[in-house]
Amino acid sequence: MTIEKSALTSGSIMIVGGGISGITTALEAAEVGYEVLLIEKEPSLGGRVSQLKHYFPKLCPPTCGLEINYKRIKDNPKIKVITMAEIEKVEGTAGNYTVDVKISPRYVNENCTACGECAKVCESEIADEFNFGMNRKKAAYLPHNMAFPSRYVMAPSMSADDRAKCKEVCKFDAVDFDMQSKNLTFKVGAIVWATGWKPYDAARIDNLGFGRYQNIVTNMMLERLASKNGPTQGKIVRPSDDKAPATIAFVQCAGSRDENHLPYCSYICCMASLKHATYIREQYPDAKIYIYYIDLRTPGRKYENFYSKLKQDKNVFFVKGKVAEVSEDSSTGNINLVAEDTLSGEKVRQTVDMLVLATGMQPSLSDDKPNADLQFNPDGFVINDFKKGGMFAAGCANKPADVVSSNQNATGMALKAIQTLVRR
Length: 424
Ligand SMILES: Cc1cc2nc3c(=O)[nH]c(=O)nc-3n(C[C@H](O)[C@H](O)[C@H](O)COP(=O)(O)OP(=O)(O)OC[C@H]3O[C@@H](n4cnc5c(N)ncnc54)[C@H](O)[C@@H]3O)c2cc1C
Known about the structure:
The protein is α/β, with parallel strands linked by helices. 22% of the residues lie in helices and 26% in strands. It has two domains: 5-104 and 181-196 and 364-422, FAD/NAD(P)-binding domain (3-Layer(bba) Sandwich); 201-361, FAD/NAD(P)-binding domain (3-Layer(bba) Sandwich). The protein has eight helices and 24 strands. The protein is globular, with a radius of gyration of 23 Å.
């Protein structure tokens, strides 16, 4: 997708972030005739949704929503995608922005057919961040099996030997270590920030032991463990010994609704844990699942029905109480937890094979504010100033949301961006 700078004018829309919200905004605007430039910092589109095993309410795999959108993008000449790109600076006002974009080198050009011959000869490895570092991958890699664009990346840390081997083995002349980072400037009329969220850093919740004890994972790590393209090929096992867990506990609101961490509710964590209970049940018909919660939030009829169905499972136990401390039995790797059951008033002590922390969503921009005239709330979500107009936030850049609400919101922001252009 070569970018013709001259093709972009103040009649174009820039979208920052190529997750489900950014993709939706791009398609909505382009399919009614507007030029769109979609800027994504990772090597492929899809955002967090591509890391899920399934997504509620229907429990479809991410491919079912994303692939059709990728096809629509491919078929639409009005959408230009730039990956590995970030915004350096935005200047100007509604209807007339100048944006400096920095593009990092992929070291692989558009000739790549994703044949994978480079990965076969490459011996250098890097941590697999797509799987939250639970495995290592080759330094010549496809971000994941449904990556769009489906094109390899060469990690800058690759050894000189491996660089030479990758270049030599590529029949398509796609490997190019002379690539440099590039700075481009674009003129656009409106900008939609769809930069989404990142998982709250569970290591900061000291009393919950993440990072100290191997068999404590986060909810997003569980998504990767359960995914066929994840580090265990979809088998949910304990990180310490690959054992099938017979008892698993979930800690809801891990760091959420807590002034010391994230003071707000992330909206989807209760539903995510209920969904995770279905993943576990699929693999382990007799496993016992304990969900420790403050109060369960399953907004809307569909989510309430999902919860009602799960309540019929006799081996899923809901305990109203906050987990206060955890420790590890070093001989077994089991996790001991202490909580107060607020309904009975009793202290609960329990030992489980594995513990899952339902951590919340933190806005991607919270610690890394762009050089642009945007307003943020105290938690780092972008505030939409519709009076000023010109720049808007869609999806989880604006507030914690599920996919359905992110898509609805993204469609609305496409309209706001179009209105900016029409009123110029
Ligand atoms: C454990 C868990 C399970 C979930 N399961 C479900 C589910 O089953 N069903 C459901 O409906 N929802 C689920 N969600 C919520 C779902 O993940 C979000 O609704 C969805 O990811 C929102 O999409 P988004 O595009 O707004 O953000 P994201 O998915 O975060 O996408 C943002 C994109 O912007 C890019 N980006 C970030 N910063 C920049 C930058 N500075 N420059 C350029 N690009 C940038 C990112 O790389 C990413 O590609 C779950 C959430 C969690 C925590």
